[in-house]
Amino acid sequence: MLRWLLGGGREPQGLAEKSSVQTIGEEQIQNPYTELLVLKGHQDIVRFLVQIDDCRFASAGDDGIIFLWNAQTGEKLHELHGHTHKITAIAPFSSSDGTEEKADLIITASADRTVIVWDCTSGRQVQRVSCFHSTVKCLTVLQRLNVWLSGGSDLCVWNRKLDLLCKTSHLTDAGISALVELPKNCVAAAVGKELIIFRLSASNNGSEGWNVLEVKRLVDHQDNISSLVSVNDLTFVTGSHVGELIVWDALDWTKRASECNFWDSSVHPDVQPEIKLSQSPNETSVQHLTSDEECVFAAVGKGIYVYNLQMKRVIACQRTAHDSSVLHIEKLPNRQLISCSEDGSVRIWELREKQQLPAEPVPTGFFNMWGFGRANKQANQAAKKMQENTPMYFLELVGDLIGHSSAVQMFLYFGELGLATCSADHLIILWKDGERESSLRSLALFKKLAQNGDLQLKL
């Protein structure tokens, strides 16, 4: 384990060619992550991080090994071996009932077509299933029903003892790529371009049997669905590889709003004009979505876009937030965002409101000359009023975290404990608040000196 102190920003290679990407100098006043811990152990790309509790998390990737870590100290708690191929999905599952104590569990799926439930306290396997006909690509836990779902070429419903409760018939060779929980015991599954709504129901005859029924297929996307996110009990959002973003009603599964970058009004005259999410047709894929209920934050190509759900439009964007595709984005409790990219960087952004400049008065003489001064004056006043009532925002780069040498796959935010990132360089980095860590070390030293002083007095 290594400990580095960061002295400042970076000067990326080829800066002249990439001048459209913002840079930040050595003074990063709003970046608290000035100290880092490098955690080693993985032997291949680390793709997944999952939080277990307030101070523990698990990491997994292409080496098939799962590590459990302490987010405060960076201590390796357990090394879990059981899979023979890369990990394809991971999910936490805290289970408890009236007869057993609460147990912190994680579920892992692998390209070896097995799923394993692990006990995070002991590091032991709890259950293992090897009956899958294809790789499980996603896992979703429905805590309210005390069941979990696996998605691959079919959708399977399991209890926490890994008893198969029910499953769908074979869907497609591509299978389910993502799942999101919906109200009324429903889930939405991304299967290629389609979004399939399934409903779970327990048997009415008093047995422990379950049923999973397909209730609707939504075919509004023009390309494969790449990201799903639940906003609240009323709304969920999907994104596709060609830059489509669709807002759905979570109760009746109707389309509330959409944004895309390829609609042609001459081909679709009945479709309202929509804001383009990205200029380049080659970099339009929606890699990741997250939400704070007011807005949806989308990682699209190299950019970051903030879509306001009430206004039904993009209110802020950074079209070239990174040198390469943005792989993960999260909204912090404050007005900040964190993003990570294939270029190996992790960046902190702040959503700020633009200062509105007073609109300059337009001379009426020109318009009166052509005989439409009154109409244009009224239109101008209406546009001015709309502009005054509509706040404008922008994303400002306030921090740049330099430590990884390859694509940063994702991260976890632990509040005052800092940030955990994982990368294709086989490393995990814990980013710490330098001032806080320094204060904690000083406090620990003072306590130790005080204890030694008391011991000497007693002697």
TrEMBL record:
Protein's name according to its UniProt entry: WD repeat-containing protein 41
Phylogenetic classification of the source organism: Eukaryota, Metazoa, Chordata, Craniata, Vertebrata
Encoding gene per record: Wdr41
WD repeats: 39-79, 80-128, 319-359
Top-rank lineage group of the source organism: Eukaryota
Protein's job: Non-catalytic component of the C9orf72-SMCR8 complex, a complex that has guanine nucleotide exchange factor (GEF) activity and regulates autophagy. The C9orf72-SMCR8 complex promotes the exchange of GDP to GTP, converting inactive GDP-bound RAB8A and RAB39B into their active GTP-bound form, thereby promoting autophagosome maturation. As part of the C9orf72-SMCR8 complex, stimulates RAB8A and RAB11A GTPase activity in vitro, however WDR42 is shown not be an essential complex component for this function.
Main location (coarse class): cytoplasm
Organism: Myiagra hebetior
Keywords: Autophagy, Cytoplasm, Repeat, WD repeat
PROSITE patterns for the chain: WD_REPEATS_1 (PS00678), WD_REPEATS_2 (PS50082), WD_REPEATS_REGION (PS50294)
Record note on quaternary structure: Component of the C9orf72-SMCR8 complex, at least composed of C9orf72, SMCR8 and WDR41. The complex is formed of two protomers, each individually consisting of one molecule each of C9orf72, SMCR8 and WDR41. The protomers homodimerize via an interaction between C9orf72 (via C-terminus) and SMCR8 (via N-terminus). Within each protomer SMCR8 (via DENN domain) acts as a bridging protein between WDR41 (via C-terminus and N-terminus) and C9orf72 (via C-terminus). The C9orf72-SMCR8 complex associates with the ULK1/ATG1 kinase complex.
